[in-house]
Design brief:
With 255 residues, this protein is mostly helical. Helix content is 85%, strand content 0%. Helix 3 runs parallel beside helix 10, helix 5 packs across helix 6 and helix 6 runs antiparallel to helix 8. The protein starts with a helix and ends with a helix.
Length: 255
């Protein structure tokens, strides 16, 4: 019963908010180009479903590609840094600098480097930059989170560096790695959308381009439909990562 209530509560709240939105727009006679009603947004989504879904697929593929690249780079670098304290002190400030630098500021440079005829490369690269730090930070924290008593036990038995890595540090890092990837998944999607806005090219044909296209034509309902699809896609991606995290943590704790 509690699970059903947890599921229904957000749905009921969303329904009430949409109903209030619809009633307010109709009662105040708000122009559609300024703020469309939820029914107008739904109609725009249905009318433009093929092109919006194709664009959503392109955006999702770029975000997933960025997440995979960020995972490989961040985990590899964190593993290297965790075993060399001096290297950690050298790399950490650079990683933080990359994280706090707005992606919008470096996007024009990345677009030029990737080539104006290949905007998807620039979008993936910028999304990698956005998704890199949560994975790197989580992995680095996890690799250093091993129980000190177990560290001394491994020293006592003369464990090699590889044995220490595979049997102590990697298992200790599992929860941190999963949390880092869950956060980075959403950031990769955000990064892909922002990068496509900045790239300003229809070559990638993602949802951001559809929003820009609809904005130039004052098709506000279509813009809202694209944003709604982005929100649903982000929520689905987060839920998927949450399910993977729960499944893997259950197995990890069982072991």
């Amino acid at each position: 019963m509690s699970r059903i209530a947890d599921l229904l509560a957000p749905l009921i709240l969303a329904g009430l908010l949409l109903a209030a939105w619809e009633i307010a727009c109709r009662a105040l006679a708000v122009p559609t180009y300024f703020l469309p009603t939820p029914t107008a947004v739904a109609k725009a989504a249905v009318d433009n479903a093929p092109i919006l879904l194709a664009s959503a697929w392109n955006t999702l593929l770029m975000a997933l590609a960025a997440l995979a690249c960020a995972s490989v780079i961040a985990c590899g670098l964190a593993l290297l840094v965790a075993t060399h304290p001096l290297l950690e002190r050298a790399v950490q400030p650079l990683a933080v600098a990359i994280q706090v630098t707005p992606v919008v500021a470096i996007a024009p440079i990345v677009v030029i480097w990737a080539g104006l005829e290949h905007p998807e490369r620039a979008i993936v690269a910028l999304a990698v930059i956005v998704a890199f730090f949560p994975i790197f930070s989580g992995a680095l924290t996890g690799f250093k989170a091993a129980d000190p008593d177990l560290e001394r036990l491994f020293d006592l038995y003369g464990a090699t560096r590889l044995q220490r890595l595979l049997r102590l540090r990697l298992p200790s890092a599992v929860p941190y790695l999963l949390v880092g990837h869950k956060i980075a998944a959403g950031l990769a999607l955000i990064g892909a959308v922002v990068a496509e806005f900045v790239a300003g090219s229809g070559g990638a044909q993602g949802l951001a381009w559809r929003i820009l296209e609809a904005s130039n034509r004052l098709q506000t309902a279509k813009m809202f439909a694209a944003v709604a699809i982005l929100a649903l896609m982000g929520g689905a991606l987060y839920a998927l990562m949450q399910a993977v995290e729960t499944m893997l943590l259950r197995r990890w704790r069982g072991r």
